Amino acid sequence: MRKPDKPILSRDPWQQLKRFTRARIALGRAGSSLPTKELLDFTLSHAMARDAVHLALNVTALARELEEQRFSIQLVHSKAPDRMSYLLRPDYGRQLNEQSRRQLQAIKPVIPSGAVNLVIVVGDGLSSLAIERHAKPLLIEIKKNIPEQWKLGPVVIASQARVALADEIGELLAADIVAILIGERPGLRSPDSLSIYMTYAPKVGCSDADRNCISNICSEGLSYDTAAKKLLWLAKEAIRRKLSGVALKDEGSLQEIAVIDQHRKLL
Amino acid sequence: MDRLSARVTLKKNLIELFMVYRFSIGAFRYQFNGLKELLAKASPARSGDCLAGVAAETYAERVAARMCLAEVPLTRFLEELLIPYEEDEVTRLIIDTHDKQAFSEISHLTVGDFRDWLLIDSTDSVILKHVAAGITPEMAAAVCKLMRNQDLILVAKKCRVITAFRDTIGLPGRLSVRLQPNHPTDDARGIAASILDGLLYGSGDAVIGINPASDSLSAMSDLYYLVDEIIQRYDIPTQSCILTHVTNQIQLIEKNIPVDLVFQSIAGTEKANKHFGIDLSLLHEARSAALSLNRGTVGNNVMYFETGQGSALSADANFGIDQQTCEARAYAVARHFSPLLTNTVVGFIGPEYLYDGKQLIRAGLEDHFCGKLLGVPLGCDVCYTNHAEIDQDDVDTLMTLLAAAGVTFIMGVPGADDIMLNYQSTSFHDALYLRKVMGLGVAPEFEQWLKRVNIMNDQGKIQPVEPAHPLLQGIPEHLLTFKTPNEKA
After folding, report:
1. B interface test, pick of A8, A20, A41, A259 with most B CB neighbours within 10 Å
2. Which ipTM score applies to this complex?
3. What are the structural domains, with CATH classification, of chain A?
4. Which among B141, B222, B386, B450 would be 20 to 30 A from B149, CA to CA?
């Protein structure tokens, strides 16, 4: 077999710059194209992100785990019957199906006067992996830090959920504050990133401008402890000022709520 | 077969009311209530139009709409407005700036004739450039719906839109690249490392454009200084841009931060633009501010716009207009401000607007065609998110077709994987592939620079870089010690 006179690949002599970024730099070239190893590495990352989108949340397992931690659980489903309709009809993902709506209506929340009713929704969103990995430890941190006089409503696990589904749930359960923990759109470097969206006095028809977002909660992002404290700081401020969203600015020194390219996000 | 039954018999005082357009195929009679409905139903199947409830219900209805649309005179688009003149400043812009002189060349045509006219050889680059100001976005959108993909490529290829700031963009036989060195925490060293990676692969002639993670003005001004420092130190004929809200950029210009291009996301209706927090007068103000800095060397196109199908619908501001027509109207906004670059971020919003590779490819070609026909320097972020039925093979197909169509620029993202925006796009390698396969060069001033610093050889080939290369010798040390004016103080 003929041995090549020179190596097939051009290596990039700036490997040392890789320590400054997780971007795919200094990949080298086969001709002007990607080397096989880098091509397959990208393909694997994409496959994992795709699987994260389509992997159904194991709702019963999560409910059991949370009940073991003494959370009271309600299981609900949006109007999107399956993943395909969830992806194509964002409006379905923002509404409860009929059965779930009746189920929540039947719960009559008993809230002592002066108490704050905090309802937490756990929604699969675009990455059930994020929920599987981070929802339980995050809920435990939140519970640990909740002010004594607050009443934590049932944790509502919602399937095929978009962010605004929390508005309807919060309204039905007469929540002062609703917070939805939801799996974010997976990126290649982070298929399991979780976000929290918090709304004061939630009701159907709230807009994105009424919510505060804490994003990038994952193993390489925000810690559970910090995320929980941020959420409760925002919730307390929301109660005190009777509002949430754009009017509730991140003012605490602890607060550094990630802003993901608003302009692109709005496109 | 019936002819278009509703003829232009309405009196002038009724011209802004919609007509009923009818078309029969065999025993089937199709009716379309107004141009808006006719345009929407003539569109190729698309998830966003289904979501908006404006798409054709059957395959045959879609073709009937196209046959009916083919018989509509172009002049009709100046009479039946999709959004009333009084209600929408984009409509007013389209009507008030319509160049009747330029239009006179095509004013006798129907939409169907217009397609034929665009395709014939005698309609060349010079004529298309001359006529552009007479074409409204609705006319471009209409004829687009009668075009096959190859038609969109062939006509767009004939359109020349040349712009300039520190280098010249859009010359025939060239393909420029926006170097996008994003970083999730805006880390200066991480961003600079990605810039270097791109430059050493011959990318960055369109712009070095950063999507910042932070919206703090001081963090952003640090980024302006960083890119400006790199551009100046190595004397690179290119420009920088930080993609933040236009009001932030105006403030930064007032503080004398080195701003080259001013960025803004734009859309095709006044209401959708309001959703972005802008209007036309704010864009005028931003452009004047950028011009006042006078930082261009070979030209003064100072604006950089981004658009994308679905933005009007996602802002609940589409007025029942299909998403491709809304997008074409955004190009009328862009054209008015003589941008250096306009970028359709084609697959960014998600599968509820463009579901799969087929829809993505079609939308990318439509956007490019409409933009170029209207005289806008259109580039494309050929991209997708992970919840769409799209992968890198679809990206390969669309970018190759766009390169054949003479696209102004594409994106250059390290390894095609944007670690800040969490989506996939095109890479520095992809640009090398396109230039090789399609025989395309880079912007001439940038090409001279690449040759001067031995990144490109005399034959126009990107060279393997030696460890002793001046950029590698200089920049890493420089990066480690880079200080912004804030840090220096």
Report:
1. A20
2. 0.93
3. 54-260 (3.40.50.11240)
4. B386
